[in-house]
Amino acid sequence: MTAATNPKRERLSTEIAALNMKPLWERVMRLKAGTAAVPAIWRWKDVQPYLMRAAELITTQEAERRVLMLENPALKGTTFATTTLYAGLQVILPGEIARTHRHAPNALRLIVEGEGAYTAVDGERTTMRPGDFVTTPNWAWHDHGNLGNGPVVWLDGLDTAFANLFGAHFREDYPQESQRVSRAEGDAAARYGANLLPLEYRPMGSATPVLSYPYTRTREALEQLARNGEPHAAHGYKLRFANPATGGHAFPTMAVYMQWLPKGFSGRKYRGTDGAVFCVVEGRGSVSVGDTRFDFARHDVFVVPSWEFCQLHAVADCVLFSYTDRAAQEALGFWREEIA
Questions:
Q1: For the whole prediction, is pTM greater than 0.85?
Q2: How many CB atoms lie within 10 A of CB 299?
Q3: Which of 200, 273, 325, 332 has the largest count of CB atoms under 10 Å?
Q4: Cross-strand bridge partners of residue 158
């Protein structure tokens, strides 16, 4: 006689329910790898017109951050692209300022299109150029501005779900719209980004002290990697952005990458327990995620959920930016991968 048809067991289940208890043996959910997130893509040709409409309809004073959030179709109401990662496309117009605030989640920016904008983090401004990876460690004062002549768009990535999970999501506004600039641009790169550290420097947290990883240097590194070895069977030529003070990931929760797929590259099937958000910096190709296939082009954003087999193909030379929750999973001992 099974647990579902045994009257005494059914009565036990009913009685203990009043005490907010349930029998483990009646659990209907089978524990397995993976999450509720599904493969998804946001194509630039579809998204870009809506970003420009948003820029016409709402100011940065009204919205503070003019962002279109990329919500996974299977995670309605969460605002998340994966179960742990937030993604949004932000646009700022010439002369605008997105006022200063700070929050518990870590944030990253991949500059998608346009020039002339900046991010200021704890007193230092960083010019934002297409392909640059710009960091905002948690609880750092930050604001954005556009000193250029046209719109600037970037991809925001945050580990908001972790702060929510632990009940530690705090946020605070700065007294003024913009923070005072107290350090020259490039100060952080000079101090921490040249394989050198100030003598008395001691890491204050787990996030990188480097504020910007310029795309020109990243692209050069990828090209050098390609000249000196064969591509990885699944990833092509892939580099991880590192915290120069520790050698670890750029953030305590998020791993951040840039990879190059040579024209004609067709990768082997790969899966990891980390959910991933990709943005196409250059080129075009396709990605197969489980039974789903997407063609992608420049500036498209797509999601590969946890423990789903992913296979990349390059129609032309491709550069892909991505971020995942691998850093947190490694720290907790959960992360694993598999190549088919």
A1: yes
A2: 22
A3: 325
A4: 86, 107
